Amino acid sequence: MAGMVAPGRGARIGPLRLVDADPPALPGPGWLTVRPRLSGVCGSDLATIDATSSRWFEPIVSFPFVPGHEVVGDLEDGRRVVLEAVLGCEARDIDPVCPACARGELGRCEHIAAGHLKPGLQTGYCADTGGGWSTGFVAHASQLHDVPAELSDEEAVMIEPTACAVHAVHRLAGFGTGRIAVIGAGTIGLCSIAALRQAGPDSRILVAARHPHQKALARELGGDLVVGDDEIVRVARRFAETSAVANRDGADGIERLTGGVDATLDCVGSAASIATALAITRPGGRVVLAGMPGHTRVDLTPLWQREIELVGAYAYGREPELDGQSHADGAPAGRRTFEIATDLVGPAQLGRLVSATYPLHRYAEALAHAAEAGRRGAVKIAFDLRAA
After folding, report:
1. Dihedral, CA atoms, 23, 27, 33, 39, nearest 10 degrees?
2. Phi and psi at residue 212, in whole multiples of 5°?
3. Is 219 helix (H, G, I), strand (E, B) or coil?
4. Residue 57's pLDDT is what?
5. CA nearest 265: which of 334, 342, 322, 188?
6. DSSP type of residue 98
7. Which residue positions in the chain have pLDDT lower than 70?
8. What is the pTM of this model?
9. Of 31, 170, 234, 342, whose Cβ has the fewest other Cβ atoms within 10 Å?
10. 360: closest CA among 386, 383, 329, 327?
């Protein structure tokens, strides 16, 4: 109820607490202790704290857990690393690994509630691992990636959300070089624009953003045309060089287009954004759902009548090329998502998206700021553990 009154308010009266606790024990060989430097606040964290996330997650998390999966930290040997948060088969000591993990598609792991760990789809939702909102957690060596010396901590903490955006862009498959719309210009939306511009330099990108600072960043990161979220359908008509049907608006107030953009990245995940994405995507096009949805009520008639593909984009793994090419044995071609993201955050200057940092004891303020980031001119909020 508090989260319904004001986003982020659940942190003050919900089950989130700052405590002194023993650090988690190493679950087995190949595990290491990580001491966070910066740990970001994700939209999924906010949804959990405000109790607006789906109950779908209940069997694949374990309590009590320490949140935090966007992390740059130090190992005991002095290496600076970022965390690839998915707890797949290798981390769970499962042999043989599931087919998805064998292909490098960690986000599709079939065993996130099995193995020698308690259930948890990612670090930050598993009782055995701890999480980034702390002075120490444990991670399997397969989850850790060295940070290049030239990257700042602010750039490094953006690697994980950037990897999510890179994966969403690659879910465009054969649609990634045409006219693309991006709905939402928060962290994932802005990182998706940068990733799309890197992967498809010839694509044309239309962006729907709500706040002035989001619009400015969207243009700087590669958006060709950036408009308010209330203008996107009207502008998409011109952008896609299409027309409207004779009865232009439906009962939902959304203009009916005859065509549309080739694909849309929905980086919000609300009922309104999904409806808009279906309205502006051409027949036979694709909508990639990058924003985490919850319970939504959406008219799927255009999905059916226009034969639009609606696909999800969760986490990361190994990415095929945007043209969908694969190896002959069926394993996806391409590179690890985290490698692509690491190469992107520096040149795109994505560290500038870290708008404010807080010490852990000010967690309620930090989460309120993160929940109102757009309205307050911010993008990414993080906890700073460097002096802890």
Report:
1. -70
2. -55, -45
3. helix
4. 92
5. 188
6. P
7. 176, 246-252, 321-333
8. 0.94
9. 234
10. 383
